[in-house]
Structures are given as structure tokens and as C-alpha cells.
Design goal:
Blueprint (H helix, E strand, L loop, with lengths): L1 E7 L3 H13 L4 E4 L11 E3 L5 E3 L6 E3 L2 H7 L5 E2 L5 E5 L2 E5 L3 H8 L5 H11 L9 H9 L1 H16 L29 E5 L3 H8 L5 E4 L12 E7 L3 H4 L9 E11 L9 E3 L8 E4 L1 H4 L7 E9 L4 E4 L3 H16 L3 E3 L1 H4 L6 H16 L2
Parallel strand pairs: 1-2, 1-11, 2-10, 7-13, 11-17
Antiparallel strand pairs: 3-4, 5-9, 6-9, 7-8, 12-15, 12-16, 13-14, 14-15
The structure holds flavin-adenine dinucleotide.
The site of flavin-adenine dinucleotide has 36 residues, from α1, α11 and α12.
Length: 365
């Protein structure tokens, strides 16, 4: 078998670059995907109660990159959804990220903008050199906010204290000195009208694209000839773990369906201090699906055993990745793309942007 381009992984990275190669260059592409479906982590599907579930956790598209929004709009219309998150603390549900309403509800205050600035100024803990994620929150918001909203959530999410996590994990605490309770402020926000899977299917519509599902690329790659390999899988696996394993935090997703119209007030409620799960998502609140007497929710349990979700942000693993990076930089006919190959958390918009840029800079030239 001979293909000019072979892509490993049918996630958003692989799909975007496949679409460009197939439709703009009119070249044939083979995608090899180990899961039984396309879309990678943005895959969604209807459950037995006909509710559209995002199988790998809630995905809200948001960006300020017009190029990315315009590009994806070729393949989908959008549900104009603006994300809201509440955090369950001390028996109250308070808005996240922190705005005037968060403080007022959490501490029974009646602050205005100036009052909030003064309150935070008084709470901040002076820290000479910010090293960890704990330092970031203490220095910017003070100890009580840290303990109520961040400490246990971070510990659950990463399996270690915020003291041990690089400051980049919580690089800044977004404070809004206003009443804006939206989670994101980006110009373009939404959910694909018929779901992410349908959007991905449209991107892959070309006859130039062949997809092989349920296949680990290592089982067949020796029998395929290619000029360029585009790799979007885990980088340590690619190099047979020669510099050791990279750690990824994973999530177990548990869904439950209730015979009710509505389960909670907003699409996502965080539970920083109670339970083993971090948050509950109610899917109907993301997609506005009009279904009576049924609603499906998802609980997320962090761990290390399931599908890799987040590169692990401690110095040990960031350093280890640098060893792999040196080898990656020497490769000539291999392009590394996406969160697993680049060992970096990216939102969907940057994933698409990086793939579009790689197409322009490394393939189209
Ligand atoms: C819980 C969660 C919530 C998120 N929420 C948001 C959000 O709200 N907004 C947002 O913008 N972003 C969100 N993201 C990020 C988003 O999921 C990623 O940006 C995007 O899915 C990354 O695409 P990718 O193609 O790089 O990786 P992936 O989607 O992981 O695709 C890589 C593919 O490679 C395949 N693969 C791996 N190894 C092999 C192999 N050996 N052989 C063949 N195939 C292989 C995998 O099966 C996978 O399908 C979230 C991520 C998580 C984990």
C-alpha cells in the first residue's frame, strides 16, 4: 500500500489536516485510528434515551480566532451557547470564575467593583517568588478562596497538592470585577448544531480520505509506504518509551439518566470539596435538547488508568518530554501534532489552528 500522507489519530488534529490535504491539495490520505470511532476526545453520540452525550466530557467551543471559527463553520452551524459553571461550596452554588457575585454569595456580602478590589487586596498573601499553583492562588486571592474553591479541586483533578504543581497549571486567577458570570469571554462560543461527530464526518467527506478504525498504527505501519507521516498519538509510545513513560492524568466518565426534566441549574457544577468526582455535566443544558422527563448527567472521576486526558504538569515530566522533543526536532518526514504528541494541553481552537498552520507551513509549501 502506498499513500503520500498517513495520519495517525482521527482526533480534531488529524481530521483537520486530513481535510486540508484531501480538499485543497486533492491528495490521498490514510488515517489510522485505534478507537472504534472518529473525533478523538470530541466524539459525541446519542444514548438509548436519545440524548446527545459528549462521551469524553463536556466540550464547549470558544475562540477569538476568526480564522478557526470560519474554518469550522464550513462544516457545521452552531448552537449559540455561552458556558456557565457553578461551584458547590459550603452548601451554596457560586459562579466560577470569580466575579462580584461569587464573593457576595459565598460570604454574604454586598460588594460593588471597588469593594471587590479592596476585599481581594486585603486577602492576598504576600509571596516573594511564585513557584507553584498554590502560590498563584494565595498571592492573588488569599487563603480562604484557595481553600474553598481551589485546594481540593486541584488535588482531586491532579492527584497531588497544588503545592507540587507548576505555576502554569493555575497561571492566573481570572477575576472579573463585574457581574459577568460566563465561563469564557471569547468572541465566538458555541456547540456544533448536530454535534462534534457530525461536524467531523463532514470534514472527512472527501473520497480522498480513507480511515482505518480499531487499529493501532504499530500493527500495520510497516506494510504501508508513505512520504509524510502525521502523528497525533502519545509521543512516548511513538519512541517506544526510550526516555521513559510520560504521565497523563485520565478521567473515568460515568453517566446516569434520570426521569426528570432538569437535574441542575446550569450545564456544569463543580464539586471542589465533596465526593470523588470533580464535576457534573448535564448535557441537555449544553445542547438545549427538548426532551421531557429524561435527562442524562456525567460525573468525572480523575485517575491514571483510563484514556489519557491531560499531560501531567510537574517538572519531572516536562523535563522528560524535552528529551523526546530533541528527537522530534530531528525528524524530516514526520509532523507531530496535537495534545498527545506535543505533550501539551490545547483547547480545540488551538488544535485546529496548529493543524491549519502545519498544513500551510509544512505541507503546502
Ligand atoms: C475532559 C476534557 C474536556 C475538554 N473540554 C474542552 C472544551 O470545553 N473546550 C475546548 O476547546 N477543548 C476542550 N478539551 C480539549 C479537547 O479535547 C482537545 O483540544 C482535542 O480533543 C485534542 O485533539 P487531538 O486530535 O490533539 O487529540 P485526540 O482527540 O486525543 O486525538 C488523538 C487520536 O489519536 C488516537 N491514537 C492514539 N494512539 C494511537 C495509536 N497508537 N494508533 C492509532 N491511533 C492512536 C487516539 O485514539 C485519538 O483518537 C477538553 C479535553 C478534555 C480531556
Amino acid at each position: 500500500m502506498k499513500y503520500k500522507y498517513v495520519i495517525i489519530g482521527a482526533g480534531l488534529s488529524g481530521i483537520t489536516i486530513a481535510e486540508r490535504i484531501a480538499n485543497e491539495l486533492n491528495e490521498k490520505v490514510l488515517i489510522i485510528e485505534k478507537r472504534p470511532h472518529i473525533g478523538g476526545n470530541v466524539y459525541d453520540s446519542y444514548n438509548e434515551d436519545n440524548i446527545l452525550i459528549q462521551n469524553y466530557g463536556p466540550h464547549i467551543f470558544h475562540t477569538n480566532e476568526k480564522q478557526v471559527y470560519d474554518y469550522l463553520s464550513n462544516f457545521t452551524e452552531w448552537i449559540p451557547y455561552e458556558h456557565k459553571v457553578l461551584s458547590s461550596v459550603d452548601g451554596k452554588l457560586v459562579p466560577m470564575p470569580i466575579c462580584i457575585d461569587t464573593l457576595n454569595e459565598l460570604y454574604d456580602l454586598d460588594l460593588d467593583e471597588e469593594g471587590m478590589r479592596n476585599w481581594i487586596e486585603k486577602e492576598k498573601v504576600p509571596i516573594k517568588e511564585i513557584k507553584s499553583s498554590e502560590d498563584v492562588v494565595l498571592a492573588n486571592a488569599g487563603r480562604d478562596i484557595y481553600e474553598k474553591l481551589f485546594k481540593n479541586y486541584t488535588e482531586k483533578q491532579w492527584g497531588t497538592s497544588a503545592k507540587n504543581l507548576d505555576s502554569s497549571v493555575i497561571s492566573r486567577i481570572p477575576f472579573r470585577f463585574n457581574h459577568d458570570t460566563r465561563y469564557f469571554e471569547d468572541k465566538y462560543q458555541g456547540i456544533p448544531k448536530d454535534g462534534y461527530t457530525k461536524m467531523c464526518e463532514k470534514m472527512l467527506e472527501s473520497d480522498n480520505i480513507k480511515i482505518k478504525l480499531n487499529t493501532d498504527y504499530k500493527n500495520i505501519i510497516d506494510d504501508i509506504e508513505y512520504d509524510t507521516l502525521i502523528y497525533t498519538g502519545p509521543i512516548d509510545y511513538f519512541y517506544d518509551f526510550k526516555y521513559g513513560k510520560l504521565l497523563y492524568r485520565s478521567l473515568k466518565f460515568i453517566t446516569e439518566t434520570y426521569d426528570e426534566d432538569s437535574y441542575q441549574e446550569v450545564a456544569v457544577v463543580n464539586y471542589p470539596n465533596d465526593y470523588d468526582f470533580t464535576r457534573i455535566t448535564e448535557f441537555k443544558k449544553l445542547t438545549f435538547q427538548d426532551l421531557k422527563n429524561k435527562t442524562t448527567i456525567m460525573k468525572e472521576y480523575p485517575g491514571f488508568e483510563d484514556e489519557p486526558c491531560y499531560p501531567y504538569p510537574t517538572q519531572e515530566y516536562l523535563d522528560k518530554f524535552q528529551n523526546y522533543k530533541k528527537d522530534m526536532d530531528k525528524e524530516e518526514n514526520i509532523i507531530f501534532l496535537g495534545r498527545l504528541a506535543q505533550y501539551k494541553y490545547y483547547n480545540m481552537d488551538l488544535i485546529v489552528k496548529n493543524a491549519l498552520d502545519a498544513f500551510e507551513d509544512k505541507i503546502k509549501v
